[in-house]
Amino acid sequence: MEDMSGFPQEITGKDKPMVSFRKVRKAYGSLLVLDDLDLDVSAGEMVSIIGPSGSGKTTVLRMLMTLEEINGGAIYVDGKPLTHMIQGDKLVPASEKHLRNRRSDIGMCFQHFNLFPHMTAIQNCMEGPVQVLGLSKEEARDRGEELLELVGMADKRDQHPSRLSGGQQQRVAIARALAMRPKVMLFDEVTSALDPEVIGEVTNVIRKLVAEHNLTMLMVTHQMGFARDISDRVCFFYDGKIEEQGPPVELFGNPQRERTQQFLSAVKEAV
Amino acid sequence: MSLIEFLGEYWRLLMSGTGITVVQFLLGAILTVGLALLFGLMKMSSNRLIKNSSVVYIEVFRGTSLLVQLYWIFFVLPLFGITLEKFTAGWVAIGLNAGAYGAELVRGGIMAVPKGQWEAATAINMSAARRMWRIILPQALVNMLPAWGNLMVEILKGTALVSLISVTDLMFQAKQINASTYMSAQIFGTALIIYYILARFLLTPFMRWLEGFMARKLGRA
Question: What is the pTM of this model?
Answer without folding.
Answer: 0.88
